[in-house]
Amino acid sequence: xxxxxxxxxxxxxxxxxxxxxxxxxxxxxxxxxxxxxxxxxxxxxxxxxxxxxxxxxxxxxxxxxxxxxxxxxxxxxxxxxxxxxxxxxxxxxxxxxxxxxxxxxxxxxxxxxxxxxxxxxxxxxxxxxxxxxxxxxxxxxxxxxxxxxxxxxxxxxxxxxxxxxxxxxxxxxxxxxxxxxxxxxxxxxxxxxxxxxxxxxxxxxxxxxxxxxxxxxxxxxxxxxxxxxxxxxxxxxxxxxxxxxxxxxxxxxxxxxxxxxxxxxxxxxxxxxxxxxxxxxxxxxxxxxxxxxxxxxxxxxxxxxxxxxxxxxxxxxxxxxxxxxxxxxxxxxxxxxxxxxxxxxxxxxxxxxxxxxxxxxxxxxxxxxxxxxxxxxxxxxxxxxxxxxxxxxxxxxxxxxxxxxxxxxxxxxxxxxxxxxxxxxxxxxxxxxxxxxxxxxxxxxxxxxxxxxxxxxxxxxxxxxxxxxxxxxxxxxxxxxxxxxxxxxxxxxxxxxxxxxxxxxxxxxxxxxxxxxxxxxxxxxxxxxxxxxxxxxxxxxxxxxxxxxxxxxxxxxxxxxxxxxxxxxxx
Length: 571
Prior knowledge:
Layout: E1 3-4, E2 17-19, E3 26-28, H1 46-56, H2 65-74, H3 91-112, E4 123-128, H4 134-138, E5 167-172, H5 182-185, E6 197-203, H6 208-212, H7 219-228, E7 230-232, E8 235-236, H8 242-251, H9 257-260, E9 265-266, E10 270-274, E11 280-283, H10 294-300, E12 305-309, E13 317-318, E14 324-325, E15 330-331, H11 354-357, H12 362-365, E16 366-368, H13 372-376, E17 385-389, H14 408-424, H15 427-432, E18 433-439, E19 516-519, E20 527-529, E21 534-535, H16 536-546
Parallel strand pairs: 6-17, 6-18, 7-20, 8-21, 12-16, 12-17
Antiparallel strand pairs: 1-2, 2-3, 4-5, 7-19, 9-15, 10-11, 13-14, 18-19
Helix pairs in contact: 8-16
């Protein structure tokens, strides 16, 4: 018998071991039998050999009193006083003993047998009573060398009530398929639907009840479209401020004081260090180049994306790449819509990432809304992500957009009546499309102010408690700061719950309950989800999951809900 020092891979299984003479399987230092082939290390004790010999001959084991005691002891059983005469055992006691020995055999096999071993290389332990004949044994299976099992450790020794053991025979198991590793035995999560194109329409500044309630000023959205799709009732904005929510939706980044105020000064975030969950720390608006967006992820994955912007900014300074944006470090000339140009820079969150604006492909990815119909004509021309942003006169906001052009939900409804049917009739949508319609935030001031939030967004590193609301003068910083006459300070900046004195508030910061409508063949028409809670980070995570992408920023928060079969409920 040869021995050797185990390798680093073998070390966890045994400090030292020998190998079986018959099949070379590893044997632990205290292992009497080879689990692979049943060969015993060393000869049987004389008393056990005599006992088994009598069983094979069909005779009762008439061992002497001393030999019987020795046999019982060698099998790991102890009786009170002398056993005397033939060894006997009751069926119940034998069953207990056999189960204990089976468990021990499994334990030994898991320690000394390689994980990839097939069932054909193992052994089955079969228990028979002492009266079992050789003929009976032959009916079980071809019998390997007959032997006794290894004794269990002292702490695990059974204490049966009977006075005699059953005979143990190792039988070669039939060939079976190789067992899969544990990782393959774990049930996989339910598969997501094969959605290949996401059309994300982001409206602005309306809460759930106003947009989807029975008295909605947008009946096409609240009635016609909801009958076509699934309404997510408890869906929230991520922060206060339209731009802050847009940034969170495409990157998983929380707000800065400046993004919460829609960035009147177009400046880099400084110092721009990266903290927990990939959050960029500092003040400013434009994220450093290493901070990625959903668009960047799709590009790296070989997929196309586009932001279709209603009324692209015309007076912004063109970058070297041809992508227009305000001058870095300067004021944004398109903070307020005009009759000639109803677009505003801060409705397009992609323009606040160096990873986008410094990329030569920016000009072909951030385009005017008028290009959407041509791209929809062919599935190959339709991007995997179409981020659709109406101009300020059609995005649903009650804020005046231009003289003679009333905005609000009625204007947004007219926009949807035109755009949604174009999408639904496109080849890309019919192949595997998903339309998602939501609002960047609920109103943060006025009689319908809503700064509620949900979903693991209780605090943002750039908006510590007690920070001044970025738009305090207009009451943006508090859910109850309706008048907003004194630049109130909220508990967590732009979405503080109290909005009156800067006192700490219990309500986590958020953008209010805005709702989300999903339209696709993979959701049940006319259904409503009222059970789970989601926010913009959840939607980002869900889109990333559909395309097999990693989750950015707060979209990767542990415990954050993403869409599964409860949302994709068409069955």
